[in-house]
Amino acid sequence: MPEYPEYVAAAVFAVGSVVHAALAPHRFSTAVLFCLAVTSAGLGGAARSAETHPTVVTVLALAALLMTLVLGLLLLVDGIVLVRRYGPQASLLATGAAGCALLAVLGLDAVVQTVGGKVAGALLVAVNAAAGYLSLLFLVFTIYVFVRGRSTPPPDTTHVVVLGAGLNGDRPGPLLRRRLERALAVDAAGAPDAAGVVFVVSGGQGGDEVRSEADAMADYLRARGVDADRIVREDRSVNTGQNLRFSAALMDRTAASGHRATVVTSGFHVYRTALLARRAGVPVHVVGAPTSPAYWLSATLREFVAVLWLDRLPLIGLSLLLAVPVATAVFQH
């Protein structure tokens, strides 16, 4: 067995992240490998540097605790604000629950430091490693979302696909209006002598909606001055995957000379939309519309869980590799 297994694991994960980034730069697995490397290196450093470099270990520990505290409070406060504004919806309650879980880890740290004991200390190592890994992975994901959500459409866009969102009565809600305004901005950014883009409004009728989202979006665009012959309705889809597939089929049938499509969705949703488009073999560029700051964190957390679920087998498999350095640190403790 290697003398420093956590460092060996960190080196393997680091090399894997570099290779994976070169082969598949857009896959979230690269971020997973990077976070595994950082967590493994942190476990090794904490186990061996406490006596030789106590100041360094203390500073790193305080930084990790501060990150956990800030993220936990942000999620908790955001969940409370959104529940008070929109009611006790499951996704909003989950945001507050995630914040409470992180704060509970800090509480456990305080209790174990007070009570002491080898078993409790070993348990604390495992809990902190898992919480730190997931927190770091979520922070990296927010960077992914932030960067991808600010991408710009290609100049030769011929079709703009607007993904549906909730309605407010029979009209687009705030989230959907921002997507429609972003689509109009894509059209306005085209060359003055170029033909206007074709808008593909994509969204079926939900069980709690009085009409299809496509019909509501078409009415909104017409009221904003878009000619009816530049609007194509896709009113059968009920999820993002169907949005993309059904819209692509419509464009293939109606665009005789080919098309170059840009999909407009909310900024927090861009990464998952691009991932689903690649899986479906739909060649599109995805851009994001702005989102209310209060809603962005909760929505990003939901997207984080959704992306983990989409790639659950490889990502969970990679994450389980963290058990090797964690077990080593626990036994050493």
What does this structure look like?
It is built from twelve helices and seven strands. By secondary structure, the chain is of the alpha/beta class. Strands 5-4-1-6-7 form a five-stranded parallel β-sheet. Helix 7 links the parallel strand 4 (198-202) and strand 5. Helix 5 packs antiparallel against helix 12. The longest helix has 33 residues, at 54-86. The model has no long low-confidence stretch (mean pLDDT 82).
| Mean pLDDT across residues | 82
Strand order of the largest sheet: 5-4-1-6-7
Distance between the termini: 17 Å
Shape estimate: elongated
Helix content: 55-70%
Please count the helical segments: 12
Spell the H/E element sequence. Answer: HHHHHEEEHEHEHEHEHHH
Strand content: 5-15%
Which residue ranges are poorly predicted, with pLDDT under 50 across at least 5 consecutive positions? none
Short recap of the structure:
By secondary structure, the protein is an alpha/beta fold. Helix content is 66%, strand content 9%. The chain has 12 helices and 7 strands.
List descriptors.
single chain, 333 residues, alpha/beta, 5-stranded parallel sheet, two-stranded antiparallel ribbon, 7 strands, 66% helix
Summarize the topology:
Blueprint: H1 5-23, H2 29-49, H3 54-86, H4 90-115, H5 118-148, E1 159-163, E2 167-168, E3 171-172, H6 174-188, E4 198-202, H7 213-223, E5 231-234, H8 240-254, E6 261-266, H9 270-280, E7 284-289, H10 293-310, H11 312-320, H12 323-332
